Amino acid sequence: MAKVRRKGRRQGSRNKGYFFRVGRGWQFKDSKGKFQWLTDEAGERLRDPADDEAAKLAYARQLVQQPAAPNGEPADTIKVWEVCERYLRSTNGRTFEIRSRILFDFCTGLPPRFMGKEREAKPKDKIHDGYGHLTVGELKKHHIEDWIAAHAEWNGSIRTQIQAIKRALNAAVESDLISRNPIKGFKTPKPNARATYLTLEQEQAIYRRAKPSFALAVKVLIATGARPGIEFAKLTAQHVHDLGDKMTWTFQPHECKTRILRTIFISDPEIIEIVRQQMRLHPTGRIFRASTDTPWTIQNLSARFRRIKNRLAKDGIKLDDDACVYSTRHTRAKRLLEGTATATGRPVSIQTVAKMLGNSVEVCQKHYGNWDKSATDHIWAALA
Fold this sequence. Notes:
- By secondary structure, the chain is mainly α.
- 41% of the residues lie in helices and 7% in strands.
- It folds into 2 domains: 63-174, no CATH class; 200-383, Intergrase catalytic core (hpI Integrase, Chain A), CATH 1.10.443.
């Protein structure tokens, strides 16, 4: 029987702001809800379904919906929005997703939900006036301070927001687009070591209150220590090597945060069987999915975790204020260092944890050093 060709958007291309429509090409919706073509810099329509990278760059040019500055314009009279737009062309993957939202907010003063549909925003939707209309020469450090003050909810993420602006401006300096970074020297908060973890009681409470698909996600994340977004959510059958009583997930350097080969080792029979079952359900594409059969992403995992966190608070079960879906990874580290997640019941070293989590020893020491029981055993032995 011939395979029926589905019409409309290509599956899995949603939630980017742009999408591929079979028979039509790459498009996005404008502020009036109308489909518009994505084009290359020469104005040619993008029609190749495999050319996601070109579509992403084309969509980046639409974020501020402004024409490019004319050639030969004096460096520091270039608008801030153009510096940001050009910077986004050089980013990809998760970096593009995060920083496009930050830079959109900075340039327009609107929340990221209005990306591509600014005309739908009302005056009350404005968080601040926006700084994209300023020239680089007009941008001052006090604008950054005002921007931060307009987002009281950021708390521990201020550093991430500031870095996005700094890197866009630094990239413009490096490419000779501007003569200097006008906010060079602006102090950013020190990074927060968010080594929050889940107790066994909190973990079981999540399983009771969560939908089966999210409960399964939490169980696998804690058991493997996988990074929620770029490892767990992107796992396909091609990453999995089933060795019978053991299993590995292997990610190539270009798929990894650290840009080195990443292997996750699994010996838990329950997790191995879960993965096998998911691969039978989804032999192609992402194998872990939400209850709607939509592949998990870091966004919907994080949103689901926040909802469960609020439900548990109403039940009288309070998680740490900064607990998040990434806390599952920290939970894995803590249980390994305590010995509660090992077959022998003995704690492992910080060096072993670094290997298992795909981090450097220095990063693990910084985050989990106070949980490393082996680091104090020799001291107590010397005092005995």
